[in-house]
Specification:
The complex is a heterotetramer, with 2 copies of chain A and 2 copies of chain C.
Chain A: H1 3-12, E1 20-23, E2 42-45, E3 49-55, E4 73-81, H2 84-92, E5 98-101, E6 105-107, E7 112-113, H3 128-134, E8 137-141, E9 153-154, E10 167-171, E11 175-180, E12 183-189, H4 195-200, E13 206-207
Chain C: E1 6-7, H1 9-13, E2 21-24, H2 34-43, E3 48-51, H3 63-67, E4 71-76, H4 83-90, E5 95-98, H5 101-112, E6 117-120, E7 133-137, E8 140-146, E9 150-157, E10 159-161, E11 166-167, H6 176-181, E12 183-190, E13 193-194, E14 213-216
Parallel strand pairs in C: 1-14, 2-3, 2-9, 3-4, 4-5, 9-12, 10-13, 12-14
Antiparallel strand pairs in C: 6-8, 7-8, 10-11
The chains are: A alpha/beta, C alpha/beta.
Amino acid sequence: MPYKHRIARRAAQEIEAGQIINLGIGIPNLIMDYLPPGQQVFVHAENGIWGMGPRAKAGQEDPDLIDAGAAYTTVVPGAAFFDSLMSFAIIRSGRIDVAFLGALEIAQNGDLANWIIPGKMTPGIGGGMELAQKARKVVVLTTHVAKSGQPKIVKNCSLPLTAPACVALIITDLAVIEVTAEGLWLRELAEGVTVAEVVAKTGAPLQVPSDALPRF
Amino acid sequence: MPYKHRIARRAAQEIEAGQIINLGIGIPNLIMDYLPPGQQVFVHAENGIWGMGPRAKAGQEDPDLIDAGAAYTTVVPGAAFFDSLMSFAIIRSGRIDVAFLGALEIAQNGDLANWIIPGKMTPGIGGGMELAQKARKVVVLTTHVAKSGQPKIVKNCSLPLTAPACVALIITDLAVIEVTAEGLWLRELAEGVTVAEVVAKTGAPLQVPSDALPRF
Amino acid sequence: MGNSKIFSVGDACRSIVDGATILVGGFGQPGTPNSLLRQLLAQGTKQLTLVKNDASEPGLGISPLIEAGRVDRLIASHVGLNPLAVAQMNEGRLKIDIFPQGILAEKIRAGGAGLGGILTDIGLHLGSSLVAQLVEVDGISYKIEPALRGNVALIHAERADEMGNLVFAKTAYNFNPVMAMAADLVIVETAEIVPPGAIDPDHVHLPGAFVDRLVLIEEFGPEYGVLKHHALQT
Amino acid sequence: MGNSKIFSVGDACRSIVDGATILVGGFGQPGTPNSLLRQLLAQGTKQLTLVKNDASEPGLGISPLIEAGRVDRLIASHVGLNPLAVAQMNEGRLKIDIFPQGILAEKIRAGGAGLGGILTDIGLHLGSSLVAQLVEVDGISYKIEPALRGNVALIHAERADEMGNLVFAKTAYNFNPVMAMAADLVIVETAEIVPPGAIDPDHVHLPGAFVDRLVLIEEFGPEYGVLKHHALQT
């Protein structure tokens, strides 16, 4: 299974029946394929959907129906459309139970940086800052290290923050790491990965339980 | 013709085709009976109507369709319903062309007091403060004097203001008076009323043109 | 359905505690959640702060709660149609805070939209008499009106689907959506609960994201009908 | 009809002057007023400040105006899908101001709702880097985000009636209503103009009170259709 799908499949386990979730662009969007069938989950999209369904099949696209990443999508029965004001009122008032976001850097205290590399990448903020700051739980889905090989999980972020101390859980191609008041805890390992590899590729102190770790 | 209807009939002449108007409770509401037929006027009601029609006939009331004064009403073809937020966004953003309001006191500079008599009458503000402050033109419809016999048009209001310097025109049972940068000008007289009577019952300097005044 | 939102009126309202701040939909009678308010009266909840556009009329809407002495404070824009509320205020038994109608709606919306408040020039001439903080932006003075939220919102909708998506009817729309946006627990009474998909997603007035509990109205008393004293007399 | 709101695209847009601030609906392509933007390009209007959620994609939406050098400033929340806009920014030819998406919407709504601005805690950790004024309410710090208005709004609606009441389709809803609320002149392109009464008053998304001019879309170019690069490949 490609690592992106492994991450998405594991991330789907963080969702409880009846919750409202928001999926960022990229790996988070793949979670749609792993939502537990028959369990009611409400997917919110910033561009004005509550009750988003899977991506539209080829030939069945509706030009007026896209997700927040501009891909053609669908809705489930009982969906609602609304304007951008209502969409972000849902976000900022704390009605999103879990937001799944990407990351450039995550600090050991849960600080998240994912919106700008000054002088290099300036895509804009979009809805990420409000999601990171106001969702009840923020789960970051990312590769464990950057393309340069540098750890993405660090003691302190060097980039401007999206939101401070917002991340609760980090799911990478190598591990599941929980952000706690006592620092980072290794909770699970991807198939074929060792504790030593995760520790080596993590740029902040990582606490490891003495028990055997579950695999995902 | 009862004086209230005379005032309302005269007030209707202040409305131009295509305008959006708002009618306060009482005499202003009677304007509905004098809207020029065939001329498109959009009546806004604070409780969420754009395109209000005449009051509902007996036996044809809809429990979900009232005006801002709680009377059962109707809508014209092309009406829209909306919530209180949208209703007041229309008002405060200046989209009401003419608001017709009642008054307790009007000062010579256009100050309006109509929402409270401290220690005596406290009905609340309702939508009046926003209408008075934000409508493009405010026309006051009122009896010329209070029940006590005291003039309602005064040099300075003694009551807390609804909005300062907001009134453009005053239509009473006796006269039509314009509020200008140079003070109050008598513009029209009700049938059977003399200039002397209007001047006597007005508590602020009233300028009278030398030409014969129209009757209404 | 995983977690059903459909409750009996008793189960829906039981968790409302004494001292709660309750946001109530309605402008006059249309959109007023009469059945939920009746339940609140029956279960004896007291020391309430109510937030509603108006004080209702004697015997209707929130007035029975006021008449029974269950309301300590009312935040509203207009109370002129309820002399009983005004009398309690004059006797010092009921505290009433009055805001301009649209500003009241905006304060609540700010709470419901996760904002700290709004800046407005409405009523600026009254100075600090409404306990407002002033601020200057680009040389213009504004009042700061802080956001307002409630523990509970009581809402009346024409129709709901099982997801909690709501549709309001005509002028029964009014304060209902904004009240629902700004409360921790949102309880909706409605005339009809339909299956998911029965409401066109483009016709939803308030998405179910804001709705926690749905109650089917069991008894449409006269307070839901035409009130003769507001009708033209033949 | 006393004053018809129906205009040709040329007559509707002719009064837009150089240097205007223009609020543009749309999130990606859905809801983007392509025909009105094409007219703006054709008539040569320049030195524009555009306010739109995103910078569109090359060749689409507002991008042709940017590519032609007609835009001095763009206020948006996201420009990542338009490398041409980013390149102009890096070359110093286009000034881009970025706000969090929902805060951008709220700034515009404040302008459209006659408010001076809003208080928000979003991005508070960035301090004054977004040139914001700070204020404390009940011991909590907020940024003041001043209201934003435009001279003109360009809107795309699915359907309009002759009164200007608008209905939006699915995710083409997005920023359209808020942009229409906050401009002095509101021009709407739509696929269909129906007689008064043909739209149920309970289904209107934006009341005609905010709409000045209606333009019937004459030519539905490929930019209104399915964009292959955003579709799943079979």
